[in-house]
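Figure-free illustration: sequence to structure, shown twice.
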Amino acid sequence: MSKIILSINAGSSSVKISVYRASLGQDPKELAETQIDGLTAPPPQLKYTRGGESIAKNKQLDSKVTSQNDAFKYMLDELTNDPSFSAITKKEDIAIACHRVVHGGDFDAPKIINDETYHRLEALTDLAPLHNASALEIVKFCLKELPGTKNVAVFDSQFHQTIPEHICTYPIDLEIAKKNKLRKYGFHGISYSFITRSVAAFLGKEVGETSLICLHLGSGASACAIKGGKSWDTSMGLTPLAGLPGATRSGSVDPSLVFHYAANVGKLSPSSTKELHISRAEEILNKESGWKSLTGTTNFGTIASSDDPKMKLAFDIMVDRICHYVGSYYVSLGGKVDALVFAGGIGEKSDLLRKKVTEQAACLGFVIDSDLNGKGIKDVVQDIGAKSARHKTLVCQTDEQFEMARDCAVDEKYFY
């Protein structure tokens, strides 16, 4: 028996929905994908593909679509009212809705969401106020408006529950750390799970025998050391702010920096609400830093192709910080590395960034083939490394929506 699975990925300024048909124990098959971007930079724009055919591309929407929940409701109506899309003709056709939830605390597997688990997830929002709230708004809507649909939370942090204690523990008072749940959690785990499985299959190895250094590089960027198929270390920490810089995130800085940056950093931000407790410090480091603060743009393609000194500085900072983690993880894994893997929008598209990182890391045995690196990335996993190199260098087109739907399709407790 096949079922329709909705895979919902709410980002900071976008919402993406993928629709799959799935049978228990089998990989789901994508039927349609729709996305609304630009929620924080109006007008929002809609993309919609069905069966590989583009139905709408960058269609401008009216100003009433301002939140992630607005975007979700708009796209759900589009899907159910599309006369050419027979998979969903009414809301009751959706058997499972899986939601990407960034911070899952100590959860090490997806959770079926009922009122009790919803309140547990709500309690975690204080650990990641800028990331969990939008997903939970959509979850709340689904619980109310899709009563016959099973809702499943898939967590970006669950993949990293295998990080050993000496790596995930911060050197602070242990009792306070435990009481306030202060430790490294790590994120982008749904992506790293997909990458690990896909690269292991590409290499013809068992997942449990595969060790990688993975780079998920997008407007949010992170690095991960995979040891024997499991997360061993990752650059993000208690929140997604730590580690690599991003479009508007600072990445790791001296913890005291923010106090020298502004006098009122401990106060609540003007954008705080009773659901969202954001300090001015969190707002500065998460939303007013990164490449945008250095260059005025969040478009890394523009940064990589410019000769402007500010753009070059931002690019060089990114390369430097990435190489910091590549070198550190290589040592942490004892040099037993099957491949360096680039993923995410920037990892997949910026051949110049891949070239500069591997040039810097050549001493570790990562060398790319210029011709292979210059080609478009078409396959799920593509080899761009020189044949003579000690270790492989790969690009993986990661797919978080697929991985979430697969989690629900391969385990009967989520599927039935």
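We now fold a second protein in the same way, so the two outputs can be compared directly.
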Amino acid sequence: MIRISNTVVGILNLLSLLVGLAAIGYSLYIHLDIGGNATDCQRVIKFPLLIGGGAIFIVSLLGLFGSFCGKNAALYVYLFLMFVLIIGLVAFTVFVLLVTNRNVGKKVSEKGIKEYKIGDFSHWLQKYVLNDKKWNDIKSCLIDAHVCRGFVLQQNVSAIYNKLSITQSGCCKPPVYCGFTSKNATYWIVPKTGPAVEDSDCTTWSNNQKELCFDCKSCKGEVLVNIRQQWRNLAIINSCVLIFVTLVYIIGCFATRNNDYSSHKYKRYRGYP
């Protein structure tokens, strides 16, 4: 069992080494090949990919070197980094559960249309996502992804509303309470008497395809809904990764013990005390 542990650690780290190289490669591809044609979304992930890929590569290299070459110094550093990773995963998972532990966003319409209030989310999540720089990046990604294309307005307006995604509902049309009349999927006519209610979202809406309601509170609320759900899913994934990393850590401990045993046996064979 102890001897097998070295092989298992080596194989697992070989796989993670390839993952790290892939992340580094894609980051360099964005920087060198795409260059000025890179979208804002790609620029956002460029450096995190490079840093994350580099960290995975270095840690995996230590694990490979320590397990296959029997170098305990490398394995000790590897285990220390793995232990730090385990603590980080636990802390991050708990943090995600705390910042997303709020009641599901309340709909502001009784017509079943998915429109959420910003106030339905934790203050930390609002501050983190809705600051000017972060929101400009998110808005650029929404525009790059063409989230407001691909749906056709039907005669029955409420029917198409039910088919809209959460993001489309908040970002691609003015809020229902504004009382605007739809001419087509993304073009709305303001009543001659003005919006039905005095709300900043009603005046923020624009028929310009690059503006629409991307700066509306409703759009920000829908994005927060998506982020909260994704973070909850991430917490589940983190829990699975935590179990996996813990198992690798335990196997790594066996590998270290195996190296110690082999080194001690070798010294005895050579006549060392």
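Summary for the second example: Residues 103-113, 152-156, 264-273 have pLDDT under 50 and may be disordered.
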